[in-house]
Amino acid sequence: MIAFLQAALLPVAVFLLVTGLWLKLVFPSEKEARSPRSRAKFDALVVSLLPAIAVGAFGGLVWYFTGEAIFATIAFGSGFAIATLLRRSGRRRAEVQEGRNALAAIETATRVLRAGIPMPGMLEVLARDAEGDAGASFKEVLRREELGEPLADAIRSTLLRSDLAELRAFGMALLVHVEVGGNLVDICDRLGKTILERGRIQRRAEAIVTYGRIAGGVLSIAPFVVVPVVGISIDDYFDLLFNRPVGNALLVVALVMVIVGTFMLQRMAQVIPDQAREIA
Question: Is residue 240 part of a domain?
Fold first, then answer.
């Protein structure tokens, strides 16, 4: 019994440690994304816990079928690394889609203004037809205006505080038109062309840094291919890694280095770093 508890200490400690780090990183962002909802905290907790439960079940199955605690440790660490990469990839795709929605809204605004519809009517069209966060932002602008808030203040508190750089730029153009005047059609047209050119440059940069992401993926998978090949070629190699404390320690250190290296390569291969994205 004591031997089993000692063997179980490492995978359980790794699972609890990584789960705590996962919740510390994921829960605040999920809660912030759902802040307008009344059940934001509960929904964010559920969404944050689901990957942890899935990784825990995967590691438990590995432990049950192999009977080796070190395999469960590797499964826990690898599972959380894969979940983190999938989450980052999903967020990147969502950001791209929201940017496209914002661009489509700006192009719609340009067409509506060219048709002779004034800015209040243009905002109603955008609130009705725009998708994603862009549509929600324009609906919030109209809601604030209906409650008696000046249009300029509604734009400041909604569009200028958006997470999307496209909406912030469009909100600034609307604010300048409300307070100073000017040709809003020409401003929106130029803004749309600028965003299109920015997207073209960003897509070209994405194609360039894809090599770095592929290289990172290959280097991350390589140890899981090399170890079995070396184990087949060298006698007692598996016995050293899986049945001796020194080998177990080497596996844990190697797993940590693979995970850290994968995250570093992913961050180095970003077209727009997180800090620059926040400033923009």
Answer: no
Range in 23-32, 36-45, 142-151, 161-170 with the lowest mean pLDDT: 36-45
Residue 279: burial class (beta carbons within 10 Å; 0-12, 13-18, 19+) = exposed
The whole-angstrom separation of Cα 102 and Cα 6 is: 55
104 domain residue, yes or no: yes
CA distances from 228 to 41, 48, 234, 244, 251 (A): 44, 34, 10, 17, 13
Is position 79 within any domain?
no
Secondary structure (DSSP) of 40-86: HHHHHHHHHHHHHHHHHHHHHHHHHHH--HHHHHHHHHHHHHHHHHH
Per-residue pLDDT of 180-225, as tens digits, reads 877 888 888 888 888 888 878 877 877 777 777 777 777 777 777 7
Contact 125, 110 (CB under 8 A): no
